[in-house]
Amino acid sequence: MPAPKSGSILRRPSRGTAVASAALGLSLVLAGCGGSNVAGGGGGNAAASNPECAAFSQYGDLSGTRVTIYTSIVSPEDEPHINSYKPFEECTGAQIVYEGSKEFEAQLPVRVQAGSPPDIAYVPQPGLLKTLVTQNPGAVKPAPQAVVANVDQYYSETFKAAGSVDGTLYGAPLGSNVKSYVWYSPQAFAAKGYTVPKTWDEMVTLSNRITADGGKPWCAGIASGDATGWPLTDWLEDVMLRENGPEVYDQWVSHAIPFNDQRVVRALDRVGSILKNPQYVNGGLGDVASIATTTFQDGGLPLLDGTCYLHRQANFYAANFPEGTDISENGQAFAFELPPINPAQPQTILVGSEFVAAFSDRPEVQAFQAYLSSPEWANAKAKAGSELGQSGWLSANTGLDPNNLSNPIDKLSAEILQDESKTFRFDGSDLMPAAVGSASFWRGMTDWITGQNTSDTLTYIEESWPASS
């Protein structure tokens, strides 16, 4: 997914600045040595006087150094990230310089090609990571051994493979997400006597019932600046998995079958049976065309006032509900898994993540990479977010304690990611070449929702596939 899909530019009504020292204290308690073993002794200037810094001695004394980060994660979601770095700064002496930008996808390649990349970038699409690696030889540094060890120990093969290019690990996962969700209001369902559907057909029956009751069942928004259109890519990917299964999905993502294969045509038409149905959308927001102009941040908010009842979006959408929203099994908002279509196919979970790509192999950069790949950082980040009352962030790091997350949907998502019995597939557009996954696929889906037919849309995307990929 683009930044909005995995790291997501998530915005909600602003709140007063929380007390950073509280989050820092919690982070210091949680932070410790990861599975990595970075050479070096001592610590930052604080290490001698702060016993909580003892675990950071593995990273060495990095006093006077600085590490720059470039990312799409902006206010207010940047605050817990920045707070989670404080233990590393305090105990090693390094300075972490954070830069968030809504133009990340467009500007990162420009900076890399100009020879002025950041030390670290949080890349939200494996396809973009592969493009950066292959088109700029030597620019992206292979992950150091400490990071490889952490990824081998704490992450599933699905995530390791997504951060690798030609068998070499370049990016450890950072934040991760579960995408195969439909958001709803348990309180609104209870008031109307609606029940959570267990199959796609039951979901259509529920949609028809809501329509018959005078409501609009679905609401959606796909506007996201340069990334407009990405929420529709998730829709198509989930339906491809549920109609055709993971093997056909893999063939489609790798271009072993064409983008406009008839199975893809049928899947997109199924998406259209919901999102292009004027009886179904766009509850509380307008007509079908309003989906293209409604921001993805606003797309699910009508759930809270009963003008819509269903909104397909990843777990990170929790961050967009107003402060104080009861996100729980019996609350104002919660989510259920997008139901199966074909009982013969395994119910596969669509997942996404950002990846930590480094453009420098200086010791302080490698040390910070190791910290970010450790369970200690994942737990520090979770606690920092919880202290600020933020929802919607989690990690696929198996060392993450779900109890450190802030609400039931985050905990449920973490448990899903840690469940070895689950079948996962990575977000398809994120795996595709950047010219498709974060360009023509987004544009094509936007044209499709505003009136272009399925065949022309998929053919346009198929013709954009790079010949060398």
UniProtKB/TrEMBL annotation:
Q: Where is the signal peptide?
A: 1-31
This protein's record includes keyword Transport: yes
List the InterPro entries hit by this protein, alphabetically.
Bact_solute-bd_prot1, SBP
Which keywords belong to this entry?
A: Signal, Transport
- State the superkingdom: Bacteria
Keyword Transport present in the record's keywords: the answer is yes
PANTHER family (alphabetical): ARABINOSE-BINDING PROTEIN-RELATED, OSMOPROTECTIVE COMPOUNDS-BINDING PROTEIN GGTB
Family per UniProt? Belongs to the bacterial solute-binding protein 1 family.
* Name the record gives this protein: Carbohydrate ABC transporter substrate-binding protein (CUT1 family)
Organism this protein belongs to: Pseudonocardia cypriaca
